[in-house]
Write a structure and sequence with these properties.
- It contains 5 helices and 9 strands; from the N terminus they run E-H-E-H-H-E-E-E-H-E-H-E-E-E.
- It is α/β, with parallel strands linked by helices.
- It has one domain: Dihydrofolate Reductase, subunit A, CATH 3.40.430.
- Strand 8 and strand 9 form a beta hairpin.
- It starts with 20 loop residues before the first strand and ends in a 9-residue tail after the last strand.
- It binds NADP nicotinamide-adenine-dinucleotide phosphate.
């Protein structure tokens, strides 16, 4: 994979030093759905997608995940690839990126398998947040009053590379504020129909984020899947 660290924000303004890079990573059907029409738990991608997901996780300091995805899936993605774990070990990084759950309600039942995963867990919670310690199972809770502020705080805490694991409403919130630097989509050979597109039908996308995406990686994966990665910012070439 090519290097992705940079100092230019997705919009026209340079990002402040230390502001995180955000890479949205999703497996989507050929018609851009995240899940079948009826919803529920669903395995979109195969082994090829799993590998590129883990590569993105290996790149990341932390992974943002929407509360509904966590409630639905029960747990979050872990890096299992021995080579990726070794890469992180050699770089002096934790085996897994920090998992940052994003929620307004804070409703993340304590019996979710997520709380037993070998991970550091943070909660990014929109106001109003009751004062006090982080809820059980979380190592840290940070307020989400504005995305810019919250991301600046994450950057200051050393979380400079963030993968965004979905779902659609979390992606929508970030696209609305032009905060996504990269889109990494695995196109999976399925046609699903229905309403669960990777940005909700009513999603608002910031004008600056509507164009200017450059293809920086494309890779045919096993199982008829195709990895496509676009970014906004300086030209860094294409790899396949
Ligand atoms: N194919 C894939 O790669 C992939 C990846 C991820 C998810 N999915 C699928 O996508 C579906 C879930 O997506 P979704 O759009 O329904 O839910 P989601 O984005 O995972 O989670 C939505 C929840 O996240 C919290 N949230 C989102 N944006 C927020 C913001 N700006 N401020 C504060 N909290 C915010 C809220 O939590 P509270 O309700 O707790 O307040 C909200 O209800 C599932 O079917 C899942 O399987 C697929």
């Amino acid at each position: 994979m090519i290097a992705t660290a940079g100092t230019v924000s997705p919009g026209s303004e340079p990002a402040p030093p230390g502001f995180p890079q955000l890479r949205l990573v999703l497996a989507v059907s050929l018609d851009g759905r995240l899940a079948p029409a009826e919803g529920g738990r669903f395995q979109m991608g195969g082994a090829g997608d799993r590998r590129v997901l883990e590569e993105a996780m290996a790149w990341a300091d932390a992974a943002l995940v929407g509360a509904e995805t966590l409630r639905g899936d029960g747990s979050t993605c872990l890096i299992h690839g021995p080579d990726l774990l070794e890469q992180r070990r050699q770089a002096g990084r934790s085996p897994q990126p920090i998992a940052i759950a994003v929620s307004r309600s804070g409703r993340l039942p304590a019996d979710l398998p997520f709380f037993d995963q070998p991970l550091e867990r943070w909660l990014l919670q929109a106001s109003p947040v009751s004062p006090g310690a982080a809820p059980a199972g979380f190592h840290r809770r940070l307020p989400l009053e504005s995305w810019h502020e919250a991301l600046a705080v994450l950057g200051a805490l050393g979380q400079r590379r963030l993968v965004v694991l979905g779902g659609a409403r979390l992606a929508e919130a970030l696209a609305a504020e032009d905060l996504l630097d990269e889109l990494q989509l695995t196109l999976c050979p399925r046609l699903l129909g229905g309403v669960h597109s990777w940005l909700p039908p009513q999603a608002r996308v910031a004008p600056a984020a509507r164009q200017g995406w450059r293809l920086v990686e494309h890779r045919v994966l096993p199982g008829e899947e195709l990895l496509l990665r676009w970014r906004r910012g300086p030209d860094q070439g294409v790899s396949s």
